Amino acid sequence: MTTTNPSASSLLTRCLLTVLSFLVVSTYPSWPRLVGQNTPSLERSENTIRFATFNCSLNRSRAGELIADLKQNEHPQIDKIVRIIREVRPDVLLLNEFDYDERHEALQLFVERLARPTGGHAGIVYPYSFTAPVNTGVDSGRDLDGDGKQRTANDAFGYGAFPGQYGMVVLSKFPIDTEAVRTFQKFLWRDMPNALWPKLPESGHDYYSEEIKEIFRLSSKSHWDVPIKVTDDHVIHVLCAHPTPPVFDGPEDRNGCRNHDEIRLWADYVSGAGDYLIDDAGHRGGLAATARFVIMGDYNADPVDGDSRGRAIHQLLDLDVIQNPQPRSAGGVEQAQLQGGANLAQRGDPSLDTGDFNDSQSGNLRIDYILPSKNQRVVGAGVFWPKSDDPLFELVDASDHRLVWVDLELPPGTNPKRTPSDRLR
Ligand SMILES: [Ca+2]
Ligand SMILES: [Ca+2]
Ligand SMILES: [Ca+2]
């Protein structure tokens, strides 16, 4: 992967963003952690709700393998993932790269494992969860990558060796309004106006044939709007996705284009530009302008470094309905220095990194996000990436991504219902 020089306009945009984010931070006098500080404290008050997103790398090479691993009493990788979640204790958690099975057996086993106290560590109980089918590994019936073969991982609606590989799961301490969940698994890319279709560089012609465009689903996994009922009157829409990495393609940049438009789907959904969107139940339109939402997930796009098309994540970061809490860690800074390589040539602030990738290629990047709507009050944020002298440092190698969390303070008198087992820390 290469690092592209920023154009003058994107430099200007970044300067403006810096000024803007300072202004946003300044309007929140209780904002506890500003730029340049060390590991954020996980302490919080009763009237906050903690959101977390974690690409937990619980994907396997064959269907059923994750279930088999979860049935083992001890499993080094899974037990580290469980420990990380128990340390941060989110109220609402999105897991990316959690293999989906139709009976939700892996999800059930994982929830039970989280709840079980082990090794002197208290369990964490999630009474509510949501999962649904994804496009990864579901055969498209076409030769999508044009290699003359059919039914390979590259010919699935989303890259995957079996249906459900790299799926997603939402866990919640608060009820989920399952009747009101909207999914966009089957939304067709061609139904997005002015879609960024990949082009063949020599001819300028579209990379995909009309026959392929007829069936091409935009979402590489799925896009879910999952409404969480903190109380009957206080609903927060958790918008979940996991756009495809912009790499593993050719000069046509087909994955870069798709990543860009997968991110655009949420940008249009929350900003009043989503009238064209049709969910899997056939309902049209985007989110109401007054709704509270939190966009979460691994978006495979760094705002400054890496290979995303046109710095695609700015489609979200630059929206005036969104706030960008900039979760940070001290471990990200330390590892960028220790690991060197591509990290040394990057311009992004390593305290914002959320993924630890190959330092001879991309280096570490900021690609996992929690972006709340502006009609909510952010009071904390962090990336779970301890420094190497911290006893918890040994947990983080369970995934190539780090858990990211953001705390929202609820309006006075909201009184979220917590059970006694819901200790905050
Ligand atoms: Ca093929
Ligand atoms: Ca590419
Ligand atoms: Ca690295």
Structure description:
By secondary structure, this protein is α+β, with helices and mostly antiparallel strands. 20% of the residues lie in helices and 16% in strands. It has a single domain, classed as Endonuclease/exonuclease/phosphatase (Deoxyribonuclease I, Chain A), CATH 3.60.10. It has eight helices and eleven strands. It has a six-stranded mixed β-sheet with strand order 3-4-2-1-11-10, covered by helices on one side. Helix 6 (254-270) links the parallel strand 7 and strand 8. It is globular. Bound molecules: calcium ion (CA) (3 copies). The site of one calcium ion (CA) has 7 residues, from helix 6.
CATH architecture: 4-Layer Sandwich
Residues in helix, % = 10-25%
CATH topology: Deoxyribonuclease I, Chain A
Counting DSSP E segments of at least 2 residues, the number of strands comes to: 11
Report the span from N to C terminus. Answer: 40 Å
Order of helices and strands: HEHHEHEEEHEEHEHHEEE
- Average pLDDT reading: 91
Please state how the strands of the largest beta sheet are arranged side by side. Answer: 3-4-2-1-11-10
The number of helical elements comes to 8
| Spatial extent as radius of gyration | 21 Å
The CATH homologous superfamily:
Endonuclease/exonuclease/phosphatase
Low-confidence stretches at least 5 residues in length (pLDDT < 50)? 1-9, 17-37
